[in-house]
Amino acid sequence: xxxxxxxxxxxxxxxxxxxxxxxxxxxxxxxxxxxxxxxxxxxxxxxxxxxxxxxxxxxxxxxxxxxxxxxxxxxxxxxxxxxxxxxxxxxxxxxxxxxxxxxxxxxxxxxxxxxxxxxxxxxxxxxxxxxxxxxxxxxxxxxxxxxxxxxxxxxxxxxxxxxxxxxxxxxxxxxxxxxxxxxxxxxxxxxxxxxxxxxxxxxxxxxxxxxxxxxxxxxxxxxxxxxxxxxxxxxxxxxxxxxxxxxxxxxxxxxxxxxxxxxxxxxxxxxxxxxxxxxxxxxxxxxxxxxxxxxxxxxxxxxxxxxxxxxxxxx
Length: 315
Known about the structure:
Elements: H1 2-21, E1 32-33, E2 36-37, E3 42-44, E4 47-49, H2 58-105, H3 119-130, H4 133-142, E5 145-146, E6 149-156, E7 160-161, E8 167-168, E9 171-177, E10 180-189, H5 190-208, E11 215-222, E12 245-253, E13 258-260, H6 261-264, H7 271-281, E14 287-289, E15 301-304, E16 313-314
Parallel strand pairs: 14-16
Antiparallel strand pairs: 1-2, 3-4, 5-6, 6-9, 7-8, 9-10, 11-12, 12-13, 12-15, 14-15
């Protein structure tokens, strides 16, 4: 019984082997060669390609990722260029608007002034906008100021060249100082003009005060003159020849009263006032001479800006 079963098994194995070896070429069962099955290939365009798709490896994924990054970068660059163009357009529009506003400000057609703004305020703003160093000098010259001081009124005159050392490089003709008119034009240099203006403002006006209604004018009898001291032959050159000196005969008040150096220095009603004024000039000026100095100064005060080693010379 055992032998019969073993023989049946051998028969079945041999039959199966023989059927596989002699199977037709059209059989759906592939032939076995050397115990291995053949792989079927389908010809496409003369090339043998496997019908099964190849698996996408990690290298192909890296290529795809790189392409995605390039696309994202290009998108960012395009967005940056768009924003840049938008910014330039806005800036250009702003510049055009500013230019239009400026042209409107300069328009010859006057703008309507709001009811709450006064003409005085507009005038102040206009002057403040125009007052650069150059325009300040122009405005002062238009108002008649000289030497860069608003309170000194007069005119600039050409250079004065006299005999020898006489002359003034930058002379001015004064008509008013510290708001007080002069009885005649006074030709001096700016240094002397400034000293004179300061003395009248700080000393002369406060000393006279409200007497006779206040100071009305200063009586001038001498300014620039190419001569020697006291017009003596052979004497030193006078400060008048350099534009440094002023001769003052008196002071007129608003009520018509005149403090005359010649008349009131010793016994007139203005004696005390004149002596105070003479004293107040000693310091601001380098030389102050009056009736007590000599016979040449009995009718006026001589003041000049000369400097002496021992300080101001006052008599």
